[in-house]
Design goal:
The chain is an alpha+beta fold. The protein has helices at 4-7, 34-47, 82-87, 91-106, 109-119, 134-137, 156-179, 185-197, 204-209, 215-227, 238-255, 258-264, 270-282, 286-299, 304-316, 320-333, 339-351, 355-371, 376-388, 392-405, 409-422, 428-440; strands at 11-12, 17-21, 24-28, 30-32, 59-63, 70-73, 77-81. The two termini are 37 Å apart.
Length: 449
């Protein structure tokens, strides 16, 4: 992942999670996308309106996968597969999934599940992923049903525990949606549509042994909860629906083939233009892509995501001035600063290799890191920029931070040692280099010769 032009709008992180599935090691491809993150955060803010939790307390990660799934782990971490968003027919169906996962968090189910596992003796038990769709097929190889610590069958005790949590989460999700003035019947409609498309539904006998209840059971729980929450048939928010349609179109273009995209998005609507702009970009038809995006920008000059994508295309074609222009405009149209957008502008400025641009690049990259210190790619670009202006000590420091984030402890330690020798004592970078050295020297083998 040497160039942002290869990252495209869906900023793909290096693999950070591994899981065991039927004995094989697999990796989750985590992506970042500002449009996706902003929309989901807005949904979460709405759903938490009557809660002590804030949207900032929730960490949402998006997995590039053609499996329909979402789950909670580690307390307040929600994982959502891209295909789940694509399969949702309405933003309210997506909100229903998010509400279900928030219900697990609000109910403390992750902690309770871990506690329950510790009480079951004898075997290495799976960490129960509080998902929505592994439950639909009930199949061990669906979605992330195979994320395990050890491999063992689920006992009846654990099965009962998880099924109880699923029922509680579905009913709580209905309450959350109704309080937030979102029609909660769309959680049931999502399950119904997925049930129709699932060919390997397990029998009732198998369902009894499964950690994942069959969809009809879940629909029954939701319908029961709806009876206790009268007047929940709120109207659609047309603005949210339009945003969701565009988001889905973009995700489809990025994650499905060119032919599939053309077959489904074949009109001149905004969402169709967007999907095909993405698909043409990935297929190398940059002129077609920019033509579609210019039409979209002409219709809505305030949309930052159209401008960001057309800027990427110009950057991929080494038209740096145009890329910088559209990325600046995209940032101006965002409601708040975003680490990815600042990182990309920093990269575009750095690529001109003009000293004035490189100095400006450093400022944007530092802002990106202030927003998100864990953005390893921003640290990489910052090291590159510092090296270009011959600030080698700061380049070494930025490199140490990057290696620390990606788990290369020996390299991080070595670069921190180099950095601290040339950085002004008692400066923030000097203190941080010192901290890295102190943290890592106990873990990194040193040469005693």
């Amino acid at each position: 992942m040497a160039e942002v032009s290869r990252v495209k709008s869906l900023f793909i992180l290096k693999t950070i999670f591994f899981f065991t599935l039927s004995g094989s090691l697999k990796a989750l491809e985590v992506i970042r996308d500002t449009e996706l993150e902003n929309f989901t955060n807005d949904i979460i803010e709405t759903l938490l309106i009557d809660s002590n939790l804030e949207s900032e307390d929730i960490n949402v990660y998006f997995i590039n996968s053609n499996q329909v799934n979402a789950f909670v782990t580690g307390g307040t971490n929600i994982f959502i597969n891209t295909e789940l968003i694509i399969q949702a027919k309405d933003y309210r169906e997506y909100a229903g999934v998010v509400a279900h996962e928030l219900a697990h968090i609000l109910g403390g189910h992750v902690f309770r599940t871990s506690e329950e596992i510790s009480n079951i003796s004898g075997k290495a038990m799976p960490i129960y992923l509080l998902g929505i769709i592994g439950l639909i097929a009930g199949a061990a190889d669906a979605g992330f049903a195979g994320v395990m610590v050890g491999q063992a069958a689920v006992t009846d005790t654990f099965t009962y525990h998880s099924r109880t949590q699923e029922a509680a989460a579905d009913q709580k999700a209905v309450s959350i949606m109704c309080t937030s003035m979102i029609d909660a019947s769309y959680l049931a409609s999502f399950l119904e549509s997925l049930e129709l498309s699932t060919s390997n539904i397990e029998s009732q006998a198998k369902d009894y042994r499964s950690t994942h209840p069959l969809p009809q059971n879940r629909i029954n729980w939701i319908q029961l909860a709806l009876k206790n929450n009268e007047n929940c048939n709120f109207k659609k928010d047309e603005v949210l629906e339009e945003r969701f349609d565009l988001l889905k179109a973009k995700l489809f273009g990025f994650t499905h083939s060119y032919d599939e995209t053309r077959a489904i998005y074949n009109s001149s609507s905004n969402k169709d233009l967007y999907a095909n702009a993405v698909s043409n970009y990935l297929n190398g038809n940059h002129n077609k892509s920019t033509k579609n995006l210019k039409k979209l920008i002409e219709k809505n000059d305030e949309n930052p995501f159209f401008k960001e994508l057309i800027g990427e295309i110009f950057f991929a074609n080494q038209q740096y001035d145009e890329a910088i222009y559209f990325q600046r405009s995209a940032i101006n149209n965002l409601k708040s600063d975003n680490d990815i957008y600042l990182m990309m502008l920093g990269n575009y400025l750095l690529s001109t290799e003009e000293k004035e641009d490189v100095n400006e690049s450093i400022n944007y990259l530092k802002k990106s890191i202030q927003i998100n210190p864990k953005n390893a790619y921003s640290w990489y670009l910052l090291a590159k920029a510092y090296a270009y202006v011959n600030n080698i000590s700061f380049a070494n420091y930025a490199t140490a931070e990057r290696y620390f984030l990606i788990g290369e402890k020996t390299l991080s330690y070595e670069f921190a040692l180099k950095a601290i020798k040339g950085i002004e004592e008692n400066s923030p970078e000097w203190y941080r280099s010192y901290d890295l050295i102190e943290i890592l020297k106990k873990e990194v083998p040193t040469n005693t010769d």
